[in-house]
Amino acid sequence: MARARTAELGLVCLLVGCTPARPAAEPVREHWVPGYVFGIWGRSELDLRDDCPTTGAARVRVGSTWSTLLVSLFTLGMYTPREVIVHCRAAR
User: What is the pTM of this model?
Assistant: First the structure.
């Protein structure tokens, strides 16, 4: 029984040791930007240099999520935030 456990532990260590190394994941920043009256009013500016000061932004996504839609529904469209997701470039 002890040999079986030792063999299992050795196999697990061998398999874990063979996994490929992944590069560091790019940092992700999330923001909510405000909008009012179903998104008709409201203007916000977002400086990407604040989020990715050294590497710059790789991509930016602006849109609605379930949480922003629920907030819009709860406020009857008076406050309609949008979510901005900024993916920074990975440092080299």
Answer: 0.65
Q: In what order do the strands lie in the sheet with 28-33?
A: 28-33, 82-88, 57-63
CA distance 73 to 62: 19
pLDDT tens for residues 4-59? 656 565 555 555 555 555 555 667 899 999 999 988 888 888 898 999 988 889 99
Catalogue the long-range contacts made by 42-49 (C-beta closer than 8 Å, 24 or more residues apart): 42/80, 46/84, 46/86, 48/86
Residue 89 is given by DSSP the state: P
Domain residue spans of the chain: 24-88
